[in-house]
Amino acid sequence: MSETPAAPSGQRPRGAAYDSVFLRAARNEPVPHTPVWFMRQAGRSLPEYLKVREGVPMLDACMRPDLVKEITLQPVRRHKVDAAIFFSDIVVPLKAVGIDVEIKGGVGPVIADPIRTAADLQRLRPLEPDDMPYITEAVGLLVAELGATPLIGFAGAPFTLASYLVEGGPSKSYENTKAMMYGAPEVWAELVDRLAQITSAFLKIQIEAGASAVQLFDSWAGALAPDEYRRSVMPASAKVFDAVEPYGVPRIHFGVNTGELLGLMGQAGADIVGVDWRVPLDEAANRVGPGKGLQGNLDPAVLYAPTHVVETKAREVLHAAQALGGSHHIFNLGHGVMPTMDPDALTRLVAFVHEASAR
Ligand code: CP3
């Protein structure tokens, strides 16, 4: 048995990033401008990323603190975003508990032996606090270097992780995952429960090492109807949010195509709900209800249009966010940066958001 981690919450000293614009907005405190960062801001859109990743497989890179530090810092240096997101991947904790997984370029995570039966679950052991020394080291290096810029830790939510484990790789229709969810609900419940433990432990490792906010990616939860999400997925995600609640760091919850789930994703325990581009933020505010912040939600594809169009669309996002009535908005794209995006367009967008939202 591992020891319970030291009592977190109020006893932890406030980090150097505590009064950053990003964390102030996350707490709905007054800010000089709307903070902005981008999902997948580190990665193939940046030539400096391609250079340091040359010849290093993705998951090997995630286990090298020197590389993780450099790659995480690259978009902060270049774009002047208001937060760094830890460079890693949602499948790194699965690898840490012994799952045979690799990330195939242009494809995504591929699992050698998918998990389909109750017996397969034995391969999914708990993640212990000492299983990922390379994560603790990388976060420590980063927080020291970042100073007043906050570091966002992250993890994959139980449903999204389960979808990779059960399908064996990326999927469009999730038929094997849903077959288990509908047809073997006890096996499914045990699977997402084990994943909730792994995900909670991964987030705790990052927070204990100094991450000052966390984002739970349930990227593919949009494949589910609200009733099914509520019954089969939300309890496991709620366990994750409950597990990190004592640390008092802002908790963000994001998925793609989750317009019908936004209220439930907030109720699962998030402080801030990430919204893709399909639902305007004023409508998202209605769905999420009072007391929670929103993150988003410029359509990433807008970045391929001329600058004046990007700015018009970004202004629309800022305008819709005024429905929140305060500072509870973090500007982001509705999903990740795409590899073919022009990095200069992203740098210009950061400056524009800062300028257009100045108050
Ligand atoms: O900059 C950041 O946002 C931090 C790093 C980050 C990565 N993956 C690095 C990465 C984060 C937050 C993730 C999360 C992640 N990984 C999610 C949730 C976010 C989302 O996009 O919805 C998901 C679903 C995954 C699984 C995964 N890993 C996919 C679908 C892919 C892309 C496959 C491809 O090649 O198109 C990966 C690989 C991956 N993760 C890359 C990066 C930079 C690309 C690998 C490479 O550069 O070779």
TrEMBL record:
PANTHER family: METHYLTETRAHYDROFOLATE:HOMOCYSTEINE METHYLTRANSFERASE RELATED, UROPORPHYRINOGEN DECARBOXYLASE. Its main location: cytoplasm. It is found in: Cytoplasm. The keyword Lyase applies. GO terms for molecular function: uroporphyrinogen decarboxylase activity. The gene is hemE. Its EC number is 4.1.1.37. Catalyzes the decarboxylation of four acetate groups of uroporphyrinogen-III to yield coproporphyrinogen-III. This is Uroporphyrinogen decarboxylase. InterPro entries: UROD/MetE-like_sf, Uroporphyrinogen_deCO2ase_HemE, Uroporphyrinogen_deCOase. The record marks 89 as: Transition state stabilizer.
